[in-house]
Amino acid sequence: MRDSSVLAICGDPGGGQAVAPVIEHLRREERVPVHAFAYRQSCDCWSRRSLDFKALEETTGEAEALVLLRSCRAGVLLAGTSANTVDLEKVFVAAARKAGIPSVSVLDFWSNYRIRFSDGKDQLTFLPDRIAVMDTRARDEMVQAGFRAELLVVTGHPAFEEICGKRARFTTARSEEIRRRLGLGNECRMVLFVSQPLASLDLAGGQDPAYRGYTEKIVIPLLFKALRSIRARTGQRIVVVIRTHPREDVVALRKLLPEDEPMILETTSDAHELAMTADLVVGMNSIFLMEASCLGCIAVSVQPGLRGPDRLPSNLSGISIPVYREEDLEPVLDRLLNNAVVYRESLAGSMLYEGATGSVVSLLYEIMRIPRSVSGAER
After folding, report:
1. Statement: 5-157+353-368 belongs to CATH 3.40.50.2000
2. How far is CA 224 from CA 188, 200, 231, in A?
3. Please, what CATH class does the domain formed by 165-347 belong to?
4. Mean pLDDT throughout 190-203?
5. Non-local CB neighbours of 87 within 8 Å, separated by 6+ positions
Protein backbone atom coordinates (compact mmCIF):
# COMPACT_ATOMS: atom_id res chain seq x y z
CA MET A 1 0.00 0.00 0.00
CA ARG A 2 1.38 3.38 -0.98
CA ASP A 3 1.87 6.11 1.59
CA SER A 4 -0.88 8.19 0.04
CA SER A 5 -3.97 10.15 1.01
CA VAL A 6 -7.46 11.13 -0.12
CA LEU A 7 -7.83 14.72 -1.27
CA ALA A 8 -11.44 15.94 -1.16
CA ILE A 9 -12.80 19.04 -2.91
CA CYS A 10 -16.36 20.49 -2.86
CA GLY A 11 -18.08 23.78 -3.66
CA ASP A 12 -21.87 23.61 -4.05
CA PRO A 13 -23.90 22.77 -0.92
CA GLY A 14 -25.34 19.54 -2.35
CA GLY A 15 -21.91 18.15 -3.12
CA GLY A 16 -20.57 19.28 0.24
CA GLN A 17 -23.40 17.54 2.10
CA ALA A 18 -22.93 14.32 0.12
CA VAL A 19 -19.15 14.15 0.55
CA ALA A 20 -18.94 15.25 4.21
CA PRO A 21 -20.10 11.89 5.67
CA VAL A 22 -17.53 10.10 3.51
CA ILE A 23 -14.70 12.31 4.83
CA GLU A 24 -15.84 11.77 8.41
CA HIS A 25 -16.07 7.99 7.88
CA LEU A 26 -12.56 7.85 6.43
CA ARG A 27 -11.15 9.88 9.31
CA ARG A 28 -12.84 7.66 11.91
CA GLU A 29 -11.31 4.55 10.37
CA GLU A 30 -7.84 6.19 10.18
CA ARG A 31 -6.74 3.86 7.40
CA VAL A 32 -5.76 6.70 5.10
CA PRO A 33 -5.11 10.43 5.66
CA VAL A 34 -7.75 12.81 4.30
CA HIS A 35 -7.08 16.39 3.17
CA ALA A 36 -10.30 18.36 2.69
CA PHE A 37 -10.61 21.54 0.62
CA ALA A 38 -13.75 23.61 0.13
CA TYR A 39 -14.97 26.79 -1.54
CA ARG A 40 -18.25 28.68 -1.63
CA GLN A 41 -21.18 27.08 0.25
CA SER A 42 -19.32 23.90 1.13
CA CYS A 43 -17.22 26.02 3.51
CA ASP A 44 -20.33 26.87 5.52
CA CYS A 45 -21.64 23.31 5.30
CA TRP A 46 -18.42 21.78 6.62
CA SER A 47 -17.92 24.48 9.27
CA ARG A 48 -21.35 23.69 10.74
CA ARG A 49 -20.28 20.04 11.02
CA SER A 50 -16.94 21.03 12.62
CA LEU A 51 -15.24 19.20 9.76
CA ASP A 52 -11.58 20.19 9.45
CA PHE A 53 -10.81 21.67 6.00
CA LYS A 54 -8.95 24.42 4.20
CA ALA A 55 -10.76 27.08 2.17
CA LEU A 56 -9.73 27.53 -1.46
CA GLU A 57 -9.62 30.75 -3.44
CA GLU A 58 -12.07 30.69 -6.33
CA THR A 59 -9.22 31.67 -8.64
CA THR A 60 -7.38 28.39 -7.96
CA GLY A 61 -6.07 27.08 -11.28
CA GLU A 62 -4.96 23.71 -12.57
CA ALA A 63 -1.29 24.35 -11.74
CA GLU A 64 -2.15 25.16 -8.13
CA ALA A 65 -4.44 22.13 -7.92
CA LEU A 66 -1.61 19.97 -9.19
CA VAL A 67 0.71 21.31 -6.47
CA LEU A 68 -1.87 20.52 -3.78
CA LEU A 69 -2.46 17.00 -5.09
CA ARG A 70 1.27 16.27 -5.09
CA SER A 71 2.05 17.96 -1.76
CA CYS A 72 -0.76 15.96 -0.11
CA ARG A 73 0.56 12.77 -1.71
CA ALA A 74 -2.95 12.14 -3.02
CA GLY A 75 -3.67 8.55 -4.00
CA VAL A 76 -7.19 9.44 -5.09
CA LEU A 77 -9.20 12.61 -5.64
CA LEU A 78 -12.67 12.68 -4.04
CA ALA A 79 -14.85 15.42 -5.54
CA GLY A 80 -18.39 16.65 -5.27
CA THR A 81 -20.06 18.14 -8.34
CA SER A 82 -20.97 21.78 -8.87
CA ALA A 83 -22.60 24.04 -11.42
CA ASN A 84 -21.58 27.42 -10.08
CA THR A 85 -19.42 28.82 -12.93
CA VAL A 86 -16.29 28.42 -10.76
CA ASP A 87 -16.38 24.61 -10.74
CA LEU A 88 -13.07 23.93 -9.00
CA GLU A 89 -14.00 20.25 -8.93
CA LYS A 90 -13.41 20.22 -12.69
CA VAL A 91 -10.06 21.94 -12.22
CA PHE A 92 -8.95 19.27 -9.76
CA VAL A 93 -10.22 16.41 -11.94
CA ALA A 94 -8.16 17.77 -14.85
CA ALA A 95 -5.10 18.20 -12.62
CA ALA A 96 -5.46 14.69 -11.19
CA ARG A 97 -5.65 13.24 -14.68
CA LYS A 98 -2.47 15.10 -15.64
CA ALA A 99 -0.73 13.72 -12.53
CA GLY A 100 -1.96 10.17 -13.11
CA ILE A 101 -4.04 10.25 -9.92
CA PRO A 102 -7.42 8.44 -10.07
CA SER A 103 -10.52 10.44 -9.24
CA VAL A 104 -14.03 9.75 -7.91
CA SER A 105 -16.93 12.22 -8.14
CA VAL A 106 -19.99 11.90 -5.89
CA LEU A 107 -23.25 12.91 -7.54
CA ASP A 108 -25.93 14.47 -5.33
CA PHE A 109 -28.97 15.10 -7.56
CA TRP A 110 -30.93 13.71 -10.50
CA SER A 111 -30.42 16.50 -13.06
CA ASN A 112 -27.89 18.57 -15.01
CA TYR A 113 -25.72 15.51 -15.48
CA ARG A 114 -23.66 16.78 -18.40
CA ILE A 115 -23.23 20.31 -17.00
CA ARG A 116 -21.41 18.87 -13.99
CA PHE A 117 -18.69 17.31 -16.13
CA SER A 118 -18.65 19.25 -19.41
CA ASP A 119 -16.81 22.23 -20.85
CA GLY A 120 -18.38 25.25 -22.53
CA LYS A 121 -19.05 23.19 -25.66
CA ASP A 122 -21.00 20.45 -23.85
CA GLN A 123 -18.13 18.02 -24.23
CA LEU A 124 -17.57 15.69 -21.25
CA THR A 125 -14.05 16.98 -20.76
CA PHE A 126 -13.91 16.64 -16.98
CA LEU A 127 -14.90 13.03 -16.41
CA PRO A 128 -13.35 11.35 -13.37
CA ASP A 129 -12.38 7.68 -13.30
CA ARG A 130 -15.56 6.76 -11.41
CA ILE A 131 -18.82 8.55 -10.59
CA ALA A 132 -20.70 7.44 -7.47
CA VAL A 133 -24.41 7.80 -8.25
CA MET A 134 -27.47 7.67 -5.99
CA ASP A 135 -29.48 4.86 -7.60
CA THR A 136 -30.19 2.94 -10.79
CA ARG A 137 -32.43 5.72 -12.06
CA ALA A 138 -29.53 8.19 -12.01
CA ARG A 139 -27.26 5.62 -13.64
CA ASP A 140 -29.73 4.88 -16.44
CA GLU A 141 -30.41 8.59 -17.08
CA MET A 142 -26.69 9.30 -17.25
CA VAL A 143 -26.15 6.50 -19.76
CA GLN A 144 -28.94 8.02 -21.86
CA ALA A 145 -27.18 11.39 -21.55
CA GLY A 146 -24.00 9.96 -23.07
CA PHE A 147 -21.98 8.71 -20.08
CA ARG A 148 -20.15 5.40 -20.33
CA ALA A 149 -21.81 2.82 -18.07
CA GLU A 150 -18.46 1.53 -16.77
CA LEU A 151 -17.78 4.92 -15.12
CA LEU A 152 -20.93 4.76 -13.00
CA VAL A 153 -21.13 3.01 -9.62
CA VAL A 154 -24.44 2.90 -7.72
CA THR A 155 -23.56 3.67 -4.10
CA GLY A 156 -26.60 5.49 -2.70
CA HIS A 157 -26.70 9.03 -1.31
CA PRO A 158 -24.52 9.51 1.81
CA ALA A 159 -26.35 12.66 2.93
CA PHE A 160 -29.73 10.87 2.95
CA GLU A 161 -28.31 8.04 5.01
CA GLU A 162 -27.74 10.48 7.88
CA ILE A 163 -31.37 11.57 7.95
CA CYS A 164 -32.59 8.46 9.76
CA GLY A 165 -30.57 9.37 12.84
CA LYS A 166 -31.91 12.92 12.88
CA ARG A 167 -35.48 11.73 12.66
CA ALA A 168 -34.98 9.28 15.52
CA ARG A 169 -33.34 11.87 17.80
CA PHE A 170 -35.88 14.67 17.25
CA THR A 171 -38.27 15.07 20.17
CA THR A 172 -41.56 16.82 20.88
CA ALA A 173 -39.75 18.93 23.47
CA ARG A 174 -37.30 20.12 20.82
CA SER A 175 -40.15 20.99 18.47
CA GLU A 176 -41.86 23.02 21.19
CA GLU A 177 -38.58 24.78 21.96
CA ILE A 178 -38.18 25.81 18.30
CA ARG A 179 -41.77 27.07 18.16
CA ARG A 180 -41.23 29.16 21.29
CA ARG A 181 -38.07 30.67 19.83
CA LEU A 182 -39.96 31.56 16.65
CA GLY A 183 -42.83 33.01 18.68
CA LEU A 184 -45.33 30.39 17.51
CA GLY A 185 -47.85 28.72 19.79
CA ASN A 186 -49.01 25.13 19.37
CA GLU A 187 -52.29 26.40 17.90
CA CYS A 188 -50.45 28.15 15.06
CA ARG A 189 -50.00 26.37 11.73
CA MET A 190 -46.39 26.60 10.60
CA VAL A 191 -45.64 26.36 6.89
CA LEU A 192 -41.94 26.09 6.05
CA PHE A 193 -41.11 27.41 2.58
CA VAL A 194 -37.79 26.18 1.24
CA SER A 195 -36.66 28.85 -1.17
CA GLN A 196 -34.40 28.52 -4.21
CA PRO A 197 -32.86 31.31 -6.35
CA LEU A 198 -34.23 29.88 -9.61
CA ALA A 199 -34.77 33.34 -11.13
CA SER A 200 -31.01 33.91 -11.10
CA LEU A 201 -30.68 30.94 -13.49
CA ASP A 202 -33.33 32.29 -15.88
CA LEU A 203 -31.20 34.89 -17.62
CA ALA A 204 -33.09 34.58 -20.91
CA GLY A 205 -36.46 35.62 -19.49
CA GLY A 206 -38.09 32.22 -19.85
CA GLN A 207 -36.57 31.53 -23.27
CA ASP A 208 -33.74 29.32 -22.07
CA PRO A 209 -34.31 25.62 -22.87
CA ALA A 210 -33.39 24.81 -19.26
CA TYR A 211 -36.17 27.06 -17.87
CA ARG A 212 -38.57 24.90 -15.87
CA GLY A 213 -41.65 27.09 -16.36
CA TYR A 214 -41.57 28.82 -12.97
CA THR A 215 -39.27 30.59 -10.50
CA GLU A 216 -39.61 31.82 -6.95
CA LYS A 217 -41.00 35.08 -8.41
CA ILE A 218 -44.07 33.09 -9.48
CA VAL A 219 -44.34 30.57 -6.66
CA ILE A 220 -43.92 32.82 -3.60
CA PRO A 221 -46.85 35.13 -4.47
CA LEU A 222 -49.01 32.08 -5.27
CA LEU A 223 -48.20 30.54 -1.90
CA PHE A 224 -49.11 33.65 0.07
CA LYS A 225 -52.28 34.17 -1.98
CA ALA A 226 -53.45 30.62 -1.26
CA LEU A 227 -52.68 30.83 2.46
CA ARG A 228 -54.36 34.24 2.72
CA SER A 229 -57.53 32.75 1.30
CA ILE A 230 -57.39 29.73 3.62
CA ARG A 231 -56.76 31.98 6.60
CA ALA A 232 -59.71 34.23 5.74
CA ARG A 233 -62.06 31.29 5.24
CA THR A 234 -61.09 29.16 8.24
CA GLY A 235 -59.78 31.67 10.77
CA GLN A 236 -56.64 29.60 11.21
CA ARG A 237 -53.46 31.32 12.28
CA ILE A 238 -50.91 30.37 9.62
CA VAL A 239 -47.34 31.66 9.64
CA VAL A 240 -44.85 31.09 6.83
CA VAL A 241 -41.25 30.46 7.87
CA ILE A 242 -38.95 31.01 4.89
CA ARG A 243 -35.68 29.09 4.86
CA THR A 244 -33.32 30.77 2.45
CA HIS A 245 -31.03 28.90 0.08
CA PRO A 246 -27.26 29.21 0.72
CA ARG A 247 -26.82 30.92 -2.68
CA GLU A 248 -29.84 33.20 -2.27
CA ASP A 249 -29.71 36.99 -2.40
CA VAL A 250 -31.72 37.75 0.74
CA VAL A 251 -32.24 41.38 -0.27
CA ALA A 252 -33.78 40.30 -3.58
CA LEU A 253 -35.89 37.68 -1.80
CA ARG A 254 -37.31 40.25 0.63
CA LYS A 255 -38.67 42.23 -2.30
CA LEU A 256 -40.88 39.27 -3.24
CA LEU A 257 -42.43 39.00 0.22
CA PRO A 258 -45.69 40.79 1.07
CA GLU A 259 -45.26 43.23 3.95
CA ASP A 260 -48.65 42.55 5.55
CA GLU A 261 -48.38 38.75 5.84
CA PRO A 262 -47.22 36.86 8.96
CA MET A 263 -43.85 35.37 8.16
CA ILE A 264 -40.40 34.70 9.55
CA LEU A 265 -37.23 34.77 7.47
CA GLU A 266 -34.77 32.14 8.71
CA THR A 267 -31.20 32.03 7.45
CA THR A 268 -29.29 30.19 10.16
CA SER A 269 -31.52 27.61 11.92
CA ASP A 270 -31.08 23.93 11.21
CA ALA A 271 -33.32 23.33 8.20
CA HIS A 272 -34.08 19.72 9.12
CA GLU A 273 -35.26 20.71 12.59
CA LEU A 274 -37.42 23.46 11.10
CA ALA A 275 -38.97 20.91 8.73
CA MET A 276 -39.79 18.47 11.52
CA THR A 277 -41.33 21.31 13.53
CA ALA A 278 -43.51 22.56 10.65
CA ASP A 279 -47.02 21.36 9.79
CA LEU A 280 -46.17 21.54 6.07
CA VAL A 281 -42.97 21.90 4.08
CA VAL A 282 -43.43 23.67 0.74
CA GLY A 283 -40.89 24.25 -2.00
CA MET A 284 -40.36 23.98 -5.73
CA ASN A 285 -37.97 21.27 -6.96
CA SER A 286 -35.44 21.45 -4.14
CA ILE A 287 -33.73 18.25 -3.07
CA PHE A 288 -34.65 19.37 0.44
CA LEU A 289 -38.24 18.31 -0.22
CA MET A 290 -36.97 14.77 -0.63
CA GLU A 291 -35.00 15.11 2.60
CA ALA A 292 -38.12 16.41 4.36
CA SER A 293 -40.08 13.40 3.13
CA CYS A 294 -37.42 11.11 4.55
CA LEU A 295 -37.75 12.98 7.85
CA GLY A 296 -41.44 12.09 7.98
CA CYS A 297 -42.67 15.55 6.98
CA ILE A 298 -45.52 16.39 4.62
CA ALA A 299 -43.74 17.95 1.64
CA VAL A 300 -45.44 19.84 -1.20
CA SER A 301 -43.61 20.55 -4.47
CA VAL A 302 -45.07 23.59 -6.26
CA GLN A 303 -44.08 23.60 -9.95
CA PRO A 304 -46.80 25.54 -11.83
CA GLY A 305 -46.51 25.37 -15.60
CA LEU A 306 -43.75 22.77 -15.38
CA ARG A 307 -41.88 22.30 -18.64
CA GLY A 308 -40.51 18.84 -19.26
CA PRO A 309 -40.54 15.92 -16.82
CA ASP A 310 -40.64 16.28 -13.06
CA ARG A 311 -37.20 15.24 -11.82
CA LEU A 312 -37.83 15.36 -8.07
CA PRO A 313 -37.49 11.71 -6.97
CA SER A 314 -39.85 12.03 -4.00
CA ASN A 315 -42.63 13.26 -6.34
CA LEU A 316 -42.07 10.30 -8.61
CA SER A 317 -42.19 7.84 -5.71
CA GLY A 318 -45.28 9.43 -4.16
CA ILE A 319 -43.81 10.47 -0.80
CA SER A 320 -44.06 14.18 -1.62
CA ILE A 321 -47.04 15.91 -3.21
CA PRO A 322 -46.59 17.74 -6.54
CA VAL A 323 -48.73 20.69 -7.62
CA TYR A 324 -48.42 21.54 -11.31
CA ARG A 325 -51.31 24.01 -11.76
CA GLU A 326 -51.82 27.35 -10.00
CA GLU A 327 -55.49 26.64 -9.31
CA ASP A 328 -54.67 23.40 -7.48
CA LEU A 329 -52.40 24.95 -4.85
CA GLU A 330 -55.02 26.31 -2.47
CA PRO A 331 -57.15 23.12 -2.37
CA VAL A 332 -54.06 20.98 -1.75
CA LEU A 333 -52.76 23.20 1.07
CA ASP A 334 -56.23 23.48 2.61
CA ARG A 335 -56.68 19.71 2.59
CA LEU A 336 -53.25 19.07 4.10
CA LEU A 337 -53.51 21.71 6.82
CA ASN A 338 -56.82 20.26 7.97
CA ASN A 339 -55.76 16.61 7.80
CA ALA A 340 -52.09 16.82 8.67
CA VAL A 341 -51.98 13.74 10.89
CA VAL A 342 -53.73 11.55 8.31
CA TYR A 343 -51.45 12.69 5.50
CA ARG A 344 -48.32 12.38 7.61
CA GLU A 345 -49.17 8.75 8.31
CA SER A 346 -50.12 7.88 4.74
CA LEU A 347 -47.50 9.77 2.75
CA ALA A 348 -44.44 10.12 4.96
CA GLY A 349 -42.09 7.47 3.68
CA SER A 350 -38.47 6.57 3.73
CA MET A 351 -36.03 6.87 0.87
CA LEU A 352 -33.01 6.33 3.07
CA TYR A 353 -29.86 4.98 1.47
CA GLU A 354 -28.55 2.61 4.12
CA GLY A 355 -24.88 1.86 3.64
CA ALA A 356 -24.32 4.65 1.10
CA THR A 357 -21.38 6.23 2.92
CA GLY A 358 -19.67 2.89 3.38
CA SER A 359 -20.19 2.13 -0.30
CA VAL A 360 -18.34 5.27 -1.37
CA VAL A 361 -15.58 4.54 1.15
CA SER A 362 -15.24 0.99 -0.20
CA LEU A 363 -14.97 2.36 -3.73
CA LEU A 364 -12.12 4.64 -2.65
CA TYR A 365 -10.33 1.79 -0.86
CA GLU A 366 -10.72 -0.40 -3.94
CA ILE A 367 -9.16 2.25 -6.17
CA MET A 368 -6.32 2.79 -3.68
CA ARG A 369 -5.88 -1.00 -3.31
CA ILE A 370 -6.42 -0.84 0.43
CA PRO A 371 -7.71 -4.20 1.73
CA ARG A 372 -11.09 -4.06 3.43
CA SER A 373 -10.95 -4.77 7.14
CA VAL A 374 -13.43 -7.13 8.78
CA SER A 375 -15.13 -4.18 10.48
CA GLY A 376 -14.96 -1.94 7.44
CA ALA A 377 -17.92 -0.90 5.33
CA GLU A 378 -19.00 -3.40 2.72
CA ARG A 379 -20.75 -2.51 -0.50
Report:
1. yes
2. 16, 21, 10
3. alpha beta
4. 85
5. 11, 126
